[in-house]
Amino acid sequence: MKELYTTTMINNGGRNGKSYAEDQSLSLNIAPPGSKLEDVTNPEQLFAAGYSACFNSALDLIKRQKKIQGASTIKATVKLMEQAAFDYVLAVDIEGHIEGLSIEEAQQLLEFTHTVCPYSKATMGNINVTIKAV
Protein backbone atom coordinates (compact mmCIF):
# COMPACT_ATOMS: atom_id res chain seq x y z
CA MET A 1 0.00 0.00 0.00
CA LYS A 2 1.33 3.43 -0.97
CA GLU A 3 0.83 6.35 1.43
CA LEU A 4 -0.51 9.38 -0.48
CA TYR A 5 -1.06 11.96 2.27
CA THR A 6 -0.75 12.35 6.01
CA THR A 7 -2.07 15.12 8.24
CA THR A 8 -2.32 15.71 11.97
CA MET A 9 -4.79 17.76 14.00
CA ILE A 10 -4.33 18.51 17.70
CA ASN A 11 -7.11 19.35 20.17
CA ASN A 12 -6.94 21.06 23.54
CA GLY A 13 -10.11 21.30 25.64
CA GLY A 14 -12.29 18.77 23.83
CA ARG A 15 -15.67 20.17 22.79
CA ASN A 16 -14.88 23.43 24.58
CA GLY A 17 -11.49 24.07 23.12
CA LYS A 18 -9.42 24.49 20.03
CA SER A 19 -8.29 22.14 17.25
CA TYR A 20 -5.36 23.04 15.08
CA ALA A 21 -3.17 21.53 12.41
CA GLU A 22 0.30 20.54 13.48
CA ASP A 23 1.66 22.57 10.53
CA GLN A 24 -0.46 25.61 11.62
CA SER A 25 -2.41 25.63 8.31
CA LEU A 26 -5.79 25.43 10.12
CA SER A 27 -7.06 26.46 13.53
CA LEU A 28 -10.66 26.00 14.70
CA ASN A 29 -12.56 26.92 17.85
CA ILE A 30 -14.59 23.93 19.00
CA ALA A 31 -17.88 24.03 20.92
CA PRO A 32 -20.60 21.48 21.69
CA PRO A 33 -23.29 20.92 19.01
CA GLY A 34 -26.06 23.51 19.25
CA SER A 35 -23.82 26.19 20.74
CA LYS A 36 -24.89 29.66 19.66
CA LEU A 37 -21.33 31.01 19.68
CA GLU A 38 -19.79 32.75 16.67
CA ASP A 39 -16.81 31.33 14.79
CA VAL A 40 -17.00 27.83 16.27
CA THR A 41 -17.54 24.38 14.85
CA ASN A 42 -17.93 20.91 16.31
CA PRO A 43 -16.65 17.43 15.48
CA GLU A 44 -19.91 16.46 13.76
CA GLN A 45 -19.70 19.43 11.37
CA LEU A 46 -16.09 18.61 10.60
CA PHE A 47 -16.96 14.98 9.91
CA ALA A 48 -19.85 16.03 7.64
CA ALA A 49 -17.57 18.43 5.73
CA GLY A 50 -14.90 15.79 5.26
CA TYR A 51 -17.33 13.04 4.31
CA SER A 52 -19.23 15.16 1.77
CA ALA A 53 -16.01 16.37 0.13
CA CYS A 54 -14.44 12.90 0.03
CA PHE A 55 -17.64 11.30 -1.30
CA ASN A 56 -18.00 13.95 -4.03
CA SER A 57 -14.36 13.49 -5.04
CA ALA A 58 -14.85 9.72 -5.29
CA LEU A 59 -17.99 10.37 -7.34
CA ASP A 60 -16.03 12.70 -9.66
CA LEU A 61 -13.50 9.92 -10.26
CA ILE A 62 -16.30 7.50 -11.19
CA LYS A 63 -18.03 10.08 -13.40
CA ARG A 64 -14.79 10.67 -15.30
CA GLN A 65 -14.34 6.93 -15.86
CA LYS A 66 -17.92 6.68 -17.12
CA LYS A 67 -17.64 9.91 -19.15
CA ILE A 68 -20.50 11.58 -17.22
CA GLN A 69 -20.28 15.36 -17.47
CA GLY A 70 -23.00 16.51 -15.03
CA ALA A 71 -21.95 18.44 -11.92
CA SER A 72 -22.67 16.77 -8.61
CA THR A 73 -23.65 18.05 -5.19
CA ILE A 74 -23.33 15.92 -2.06
CA LYS A 75 -24.97 16.75 1.26
CA ALA A 76 -23.80 14.76 4.29
CA THR A 77 -25.94 15.04 7.41
CA VAL A 78 -24.20 13.70 10.50
CA LYS A 79 -26.30 12.80 13.51
CA LEU A 80 -24.95 12.37 17.03
CA MET A 81 -27.20 9.83 18.72
CA GLU A 82 -27.44 8.51 22.26
CA GLN A 83 -28.26 4.81 22.45
CA ALA A 84 -28.09 4.66 26.24
CA ALA A 85 -26.39 6.57 29.03
CA PHE A 86 -22.75 7.21 27.98
CA ASP A 87 -23.28 5.29 24.73
CA TYR A 88 -23.10 7.65 21.76
CA VAL A 89 -22.94 6.79 18.06
CA LEU A 90 -22.94 8.63 14.77
CA ALA A 91 -25.23 8.12 11.79
CA VAL A 92 -24.90 9.72 8.36
CA ASP A 93 -27.43 10.52 5.65
CA ILE A 94 -25.89 11.24 2.26
CA GLU A 95 -28.00 12.93 -0.40
CA GLY A 96 -26.60 13.41 -3.87
CA HIS A 97 -27.65 15.14 -7.04
CA ILE A 98 -26.00 14.63 -10.42
CA GLU A 99 -27.06 16.98 -13.21
CA GLY A 100 -28.39 15.25 -16.30
CA LEU A 101 -29.08 11.87 -14.66
CA SER A 102 -32.38 10.38 -13.60
CA ILE A 103 -32.92 9.66 -9.90
CA GLU A 104 -32.47 5.94 -10.63
CA GLU A 105 -29.20 6.47 -12.54
CA ALA A 106 -27.89 8.79 -9.85
CA GLN A 107 -28.85 6.33 -7.10
CA GLN A 108 -26.87 3.57 -8.80
CA LEU A 109 -23.84 5.83 -9.16
CA LEU A 110 -24.08 6.99 -5.53
CA GLU A 111 -24.34 3.43 -4.25
CA PHE A 112 -21.26 2.48 -6.29
CA THR A 113 -19.44 5.55 -4.95
CA HIS A 114 -20.21 4.33 -1.43
CA THR A 115 -18.01 1.29 -2.15
CA VAL A 116 -15.13 3.49 -3.36
CA CYS A 117 -15.09 6.50 -0.98
CA PRO A 118 -12.50 6.15 1.82
CA TYR A 119 -14.91 7.65 4.38
CA SER A 120 -17.55 5.13 3.36
CA LYS A 121 -15.05 2.31 3.67
CA ALA A 122 -14.06 3.54 7.15
CA THR A 123 -17.67 3.72 8.35
CA MET A 124 -18.98 0.56 6.66
CA GLY A 125 -20.30 -1.83 9.30
CA ASN A 126 -19.55 0.69 12.04
CA ILE A 127 -22.30 3.29 11.71
CA ASN A 128 -25.57 3.57 9.83
CA VAL A 129 -25.10 5.38 6.50
CA THR A 130 -28.00 5.96 4.12
CA ILE A 131 -27.50 6.97 0.49
CA LYS A 132 -30.24 8.79 -1.45
CA ALA A 133 -30.34 10.45 -4.87
CA VAL A 134 -32.32 13.67 -4.97
Automatic annotation (TrEMBL):
Gene3D superfamilies for this protein: 3.30.300.20
Organism superkingdom: Bacteria
Entries under InterPro entries matching the protein: KH_dom-like_a/b, OHR, OsmC/Ohr_fam, OsmC/Ohrsf
Pfam families per UniProt: OsmC
NCBIfam families for this protein: organ_hyd_perox
Family: Belongs to the OsmC/Ohr family.
Name of this chain's protein: Ohr family peroxiredoxin
